[in-house]
Amino acid sequence: MNWDTIEGNWKQFKGKARNQWGKLTDDDWDQVEGRREQLAGKIQERYGKSRDAAEREVDEWIDSI
């Protein structure tokens, strides 16, 4: 799946993303607003991961949906 599709339908995909990354707060989700880089940054921040690891997680999540 391509990120443009996810970004365009963010409200639908946000629930699935919340299941994947439960530590992210409502404020985090509001800031992400479907932007891939923002999502990776929030994952990095909340889970203490490297930027590369967070981006890999996002890529794996995209592939799984």
Series of secondary-structure elements, N-terminal to C-terminal: HHHHH
Q: Can you tell me the CATH class? A: Mainly Alpha
Whole-angstrom Rg: 11 Å
**Uncertain spans:** none
| Strand-residue proportion | under 5%
Shape field: globular
Residue share in helices? over 70%
Mean pLDDT: 94
CATH topology: Protein Yjbj, Chain: A
CATH superfamily: YjbJ
**Helical run tally:** 5
Class from secondary-structure proportions: mainly alpha
By CATH, the architecture is named: Orthogonal Bundle
DSSP strand tally: 0
N/C terminus separation: 7 Å
Number of domains: 1
* Sheet with the most strands, sense and barrel status: none
Organism: Marinihelvus fidelis
InterPro entries: CsbD, UPF0337_stress_rsp, YjbJ, YjbJ_sf
Family: Belongs to the UPF0337 (CsbD) family.
Protein name: CsbD family protein
